[in-house]
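Sample pair:
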Amino acid sequence: MTFLAELERTAWAVEQRLGELLAAGETVPPGGVELGEAMRYAALGGGKRLRPFLLIQSARLFGMEEASALDAACALECVHCYSLVHDDLPAMDDDALRRGRPTLHVAFDEATAILSGDALLTLAFEILSAPETHDDPAIRAELVLMLARAAGWHGMALGQALDLSAAHHDFSPEDIARMQTLKTGALFRFSCEAGAALGRADEPARAALKAYAGAFGQAFQLADDLLDAHGNAEALGKAVAKDAGRGKATLVAALGVDGAKAHLAGLVAEAEHALKPFGDKGEMLVDAARFVAERRA
């Protein structure tokens, strides 16, 4: 199966399972219905599901079937979707469009957006800690710890704080890379490290995947910044040219377009090299790194 076909098929599987996990279930008191609707609005009906794809493909390197990694992948996607909801808020990036439709606080209201983001984040840990995610409680505990670190104040949340502060400070290219490693790269690292944990990988294999994920996350963010600077809003499904207008620190601004493209090519090569120990089994992950560097939407 080609990379794009496998990415699409995985996205469909994640969508179906997320729909089950976000089903209304028990009777919800009046006033709570809208919260569930907002959570489903945020998590369903769009997105490439790239982070779950990386988790599932990483687990496959160690003989794990997709079904055995799907709940962990959905937990990760809940955290990613929560981060988008909060990123879009007026107090953060103040975006009105996400995936080609109104952002959650526009479609509902700010309070509901905040609460739905909180609930999606909490749901992620409920999923990870459930016996259905893995039969070994030690592995479930490891996944919970890893995701908490990736999403928290030494991970994605810190990266978001640094990103917001960049408009008031001079960031060197090294500062920008560190900020992006936290804000964007932390969840990509979790994707690959969680797949390795699910598959009970040894330390050399985990180190290889960590190196791959580090390069992948930087490549993804750099490609995203290039798209923001020169992409098409209709194709992307969101506004473009936002970063420059808000004084955001990006490697495109620091290195120039040509320098950024050269650095992007180097990151893809770095990601590919990290996967050498896995041979042909790592081909889907190689294709994923090439895809994020070449995407136009």
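The mean pLDDT is 91.
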